[in-house]
Amino acid sequence: MPALVIVAHGSHLNPGSHGPAFAHADTVRESGAFAEVREAFWKEEPSFREVLRTLDSDEVYVVPLFISEGYFTEQVIPRELRLDGWDVSLWDSSGTDADTATLTAADVEKTIHYCGPAGTHPSMTDVIVQRAESVTGDPDVGEDVGLAVVGHGTDRNENSAKAVKYHADRVREMERFAEVKALFMDEEPEVDDVADYFESEDVVVVPLFVADGYHTQEDIPEDMGLTDDYREGYDIPAEVEGHRIWYAGAVGTEPLMADVILERAADAGADVTEALDIVRRRTATPAAGD
């Protein structure tokens, strides 16, 4: 059987940033889909550079637990994994549709199926919706409710905003929510003005981030007016300028993210059909009151 490696950023400053990678790896590991499942990080151990050496399997699926295509997925990870012949053109992507490149990792004689980031996979849209269900406790949330998908936004990586807009568009096409907007921290339209962009009294805000950290726990709640000081906490929902704001926290913490990781591997050729069924059952949103 092949192995799976989930690669994530990690952090020396935020001790909880690795939590989603470990949690989703555990879920996939318990499904029995792979002979080995490993986590690897840029800012923590085990590192990108060494992780392939820890595996016995000769075939490895690598799924980046990142939101968008960019510097890390296109340059850092392939370099650190020593993927012979890597070129971003192998993904044939316009910014949100990276698929798979199958290459050889130098020095370890392993076949590597290098997948696009989890954050741009179409099934990520379902995770965003489930995040809205989880924070409201309502598996049917949507009617008369607005949804804001929030990203960082940056001039340095236009694909960051593309991923947010891509999923906001896909949720809008479902016609489930009364309104759907893509908002950002560092570009227009800004999440600071969330109340100005919605007519719906209830608005669910889902940050398109892998892990909860400085931005999702401090910046966004204060910017939206949920609280003047994040250390004092805030209500969910919180009243902001005549709206009830249901703030969901980082989408990457939603258990269904394990499904996205498996979907990426499946698209690259991994036989994970049974594992997908197992993971979807385990990570389904419970009905309100359960």
TrEMBL record:
Domain of life (superkingdom): Archaea
GO function terms (MF aspect): lyase activity; metal ion binding
Keywords: Cobalamin biosynthesis, Cobalt, Lyase, Metal-binding
SUPFAM superfamilies on file: Chelatase
GO biological process, one term: cobalamin biosynthetic process
CDD domains named in the record: CbiX_SirB_N
InterPro entries the UniProt entry points to: CbiX-like, Sirohydro_Cobaltochel/CbiX
Metal-binding found in the keyword field: yes
Record has DNA repair as a keyword: no
Protein name stated in the entry: Cobalamin (Vitamin B12) biosynthesis CbiX protein
Taxonomic source organism: Halococcus hamelinensis 100A6
